């Protein structure tokens, strides 16, 4: 893979992952690449985990602060969490071991809007960045870097870190060269200027990352595929959710509130979001565009079928099978895909200007349409808010979706009061479950509650939730958003106590 390292100075800094990991001091804050498993470093984090394990086995206290683009991979979050090597983590994670440590109170986790991370670092809000560990797919003779399968916060890590370790992954397709658009025009207030983008596929930057060669302390050649995970097969519920959304979008076109080819699509992470894209692929919509965060299999299908003209994202989060399909047609597809820094893919100014249709999954919503995307039973983290807030607040249309129940029906995803709120009622215009779609636009809270209960709640929870709402209407002091405060979170407590949210008298579905 040395033929991907074309700069003479950087060739002199080639070393093994073990040697590079020795250069990361205990207590350092490290910014690593990776947005999903796409483009995450593969060798240095594992070597660092081995080093941490060795030192801590002898009584050491070696832990690092870990900043990334978003979630990463078992080789990064997984390996470092297993050796209890992470002290402070931001801005998003989805690793089971890390999650367990966060929820046990052993790891400090700061869950941030993904568009905020880079600028918070520029502003100095998060403290100093010591080391950047960034995977690239090649180094040009002049030292500029060909990015890998994600861009994430890499531009910021390279700019801000004192020292840089590069993993040069010759296993990444050469066709990635030219697919990136790195914007260097984002100044700090009060010197900011409009970002010159009008359409999702506009190029506003450069294809390569800039890098101060004096800061590069190690170059580690690797040859390995991203550890991408597969999506669950489409189930009936997610297909119903998709069908409700397609019907709604058709209705909006008929009423002149959306153009025939819709507006740029944003689709969230996870299985439900992927299923909705499959639904759009079966629909009559043509010539669509996407301005989103992760390009997942469902988007690839839409690009391949021609229904999607172009897609802008910050990461290629394809399944192993999807990645093979991408590689087979990379030369053609790369003309229609742009990968950007996450402060641009998720930028409020651009999301508002281009008028996105945002479609994100939820964990629970309450009867007024407040949405929880991050917490289980109010206190445990699932993953994090990711980009959902960036899109939901600023989109043309903000849609949230979920099956109406979880854990075999023991949990209602529509509850009297959300046990944690990531997206307030003000940022949630449309709520969808397999039961139906509630269009909440222009409705006051009590009207929203009636519609959500009628359209979205699972039949096995409809009576108890109607009963709660009716009694709240009678017993609540305030009638703007009626609640029975001593009862509002009782469904969650009942689940913790009994393993089910169902009232004792209510028969199982
Ligand atoms: O857990 O598999 O252990 O049973 O949550 O649920 O239904 O498979 O949904 O994969 O789409 O994930 C919100 C977590 C949904 C995700 C969330 C359990 C359920 C299952 C997953 P099991 P599904 P998805 C930015 C977009 C935040 C970030 C974001 C997410 C597991 O979409 O992290 O939006 N979003 N980024 O059983 C307890 C409930 C539950 C529940 C579901 N009420 N209580 N457990 N689960 N509801 C923009 C981008 O472009 C990326």
Describe the structure.
The chain has 509 residues and is of the alpha/beta class. 32% of the residues lie in helices and 18% in strands. The protein has 18 helices and 25 strands. Strands 1, 2, 3, 4, 5, 6, 7 and 8 form an eight-stranded mixed sheet that branches. A five-stranded mixed sheet has the order 9-15-20-24-25, with helices on both faces. Strand 24 and strand 25 (437-439) form a beta hairpin. Helix 4 (74-82) crosses helix 5, helix 8 crosses helix 9 (271-282) and helix 14 (348-354) crosses helix 15 (388-394). The longest helix is centred in the middle third of the chain and has 19 residues, at 236-254. The protein starts with 7 loop residues before the first helix and ends in an 11-residue tail after the last helix. The structure holds ligand 0RQ. Residues 266, 268-273, 292-294, 360-364, 373, 376, 382-383, 385-388, 391, 403, 406-407, 411, 413 line the site of ligand 0RQ.
């Amino acid at each position: 893979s040395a033929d991907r390292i074309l700069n003479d100075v950087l060739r002199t800094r080639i070393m093994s992952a073990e040697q590079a990991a020795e250069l990361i001091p205990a207590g350092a804050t490290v910014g690593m690449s990776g947005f999903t498993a796409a483009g995450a470093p593969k060798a240095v984090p594992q070597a660092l985990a081995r080093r941490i394990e060795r030192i801590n086995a002898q009584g050491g206290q070696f832990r690092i602060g870990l900043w990334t683009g978003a979630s990463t991979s078992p080789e990064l979050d997984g390996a470092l969490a297993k050796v209890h090597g992470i002290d402070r983590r931001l801005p998003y994670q989805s690793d089971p071991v890390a999650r367990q440590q966060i929820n046990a109170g052993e790891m400090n986790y700061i869950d941030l809007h993904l568009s905020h991370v880079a600028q918070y670092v520029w502003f100095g809000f998060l403290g100093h960045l010591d080391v950047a560990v960034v995977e690239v797919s090649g180094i040009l003779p002049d030292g500029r870097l060909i990015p890998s399968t994600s861009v994430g916060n890499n531009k910021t890590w390279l700019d801000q870190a004192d020292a840089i370790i590069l993993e040069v992954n010759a296993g990444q397709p050469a066709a990635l060269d030219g697919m990136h658009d790195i914007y260097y025009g984002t100044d700090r207030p009060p010197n900011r200027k409009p970002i010159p983008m009008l359409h999702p596929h506009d190029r506003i930057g450069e294809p390569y990352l800039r890098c101060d060669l004096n800061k590069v302390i190690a170059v580690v050649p690797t040859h390995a595929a991203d550890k991408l995970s597969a999506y669950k097969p489409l189930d009936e519920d997610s297909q119903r959710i998709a069908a409700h959304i397609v019907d709604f979008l058709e209705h909006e076109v008929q009423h002149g509130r959306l153009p025939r080819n819709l507006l740029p699509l944003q689709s969230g992470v996870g299985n439900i979001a992927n299923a909705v894209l499959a639904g759009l692929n079966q629909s009559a919509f043509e010539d669509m565009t996407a301005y989103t965060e992760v390009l997942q299999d469902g988007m690839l299908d839409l690009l391949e079928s021609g229904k999607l003209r172009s897609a802008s994202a910050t990461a290629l989060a394809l399944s192993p099978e999807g990645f093979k399909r991408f590689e087979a047609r990379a030369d053609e597809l790369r003309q229609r895909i742009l990968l950007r820094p996450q402060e641009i893919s998720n930028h409020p100014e651009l999301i508002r200007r281009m008028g996105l249709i945002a479609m994100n999954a939820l964990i629970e919503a309450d009867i007024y349409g407040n949405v929880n995307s991050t917490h289980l039973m109010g206190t445990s983290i699932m993953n994090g808010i990711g980009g959902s807030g960036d899109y939901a607040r600023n989109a043309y249309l903000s849609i949230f979706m979920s099956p109406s129940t979880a854990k075999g029906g023991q949990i209602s995803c529509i509850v009297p009061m959300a046990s944690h709120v990531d997206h307030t009622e003000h940022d949630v215009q449309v709520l969808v479950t397999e039961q139906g779609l509630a269009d909440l636009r222009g409705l006051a809270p009590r009207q929203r509650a009636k519609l959500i209960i009628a359209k979205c709640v699972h039949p096995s929870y409809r009576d108890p939730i109607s009963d709660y709402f009716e009694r709240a209407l009678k017993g609540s002091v305030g009638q703007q958003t009626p609640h029975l405060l001593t009862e509002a979170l009782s469904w969650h407590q009942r689940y913790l106590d009994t393993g089910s949210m169902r009232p004792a008298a209510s028969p199982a579905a």
